[in-house]
Amino acid sequence: MTITPTPTRLPPTRLGDALRHLEPRPASAALADIILGGQDGLVNTLGVILGVAAASSDLRIVIAGGFAATFAESISMGAVAYTSTLAEHDHYRSELERERREIREIPQAEEQEVRDVFSAWGFEGDLLEGAVAQVVRDEEAWVDVMMRNELKLAPIESSNALRIALVVGLSAFGGSLIPLTPFLFLPLGGAIPVSLVLSALALFAVGAYKARITVGRPLRSGVQMAVIGIVSALAGYVIGALFGAPPTP
Asked: What are the pLDDT digits (tens) for 196-211?
């Protein structure tokens, strides 16, 4: 009977400490969640409102359809964000355990993969071998290098799932209110153009702001987002017009 020795845990290296303190979820991810929820809620609700308005001239039905779309979209977006975050967390944990198992079972092959990663970064000679030796001294640092650079995966905390779901859901709710609000205060004929203008301006502002804090041209990004959003929403109007109730004689 052969007894496999338990791998010895060496003291953490400085590189291992640095890797474990890398930010797993950058602040820009929160902005992406807000933009995703807000844009989706606005465009989908606008499309529903326009479709119902084209099919019926009853303002109450239009408002009812708008609120139904608002709540359904917000809950749906939040739920999808929640379940997808948990799925990403489970996938990361699965790959993490697989990498740990491979490091313990085939350490030579895994060490070569670390060497390949550092070689691609321009390390060579004694510097390359010293960096590889530093990493493989600490299993956690070793795993982190493989996860981030071989599999291109970053840690996903399951505890963040509810927060992400709330951010996306509330953003979708807020975005949905933009096209809906004019119908609460204006007659149907006046609310439609006002809703379109407000929605286009909101989409333009979001697109321009995203480009300003990331990369890209604010004007171009704003126009692109506004055009794509309004064209998508107008599809709802076309469908409503095609299947609208005939005028009452």
From this structure: 999 999 989 888 887 7
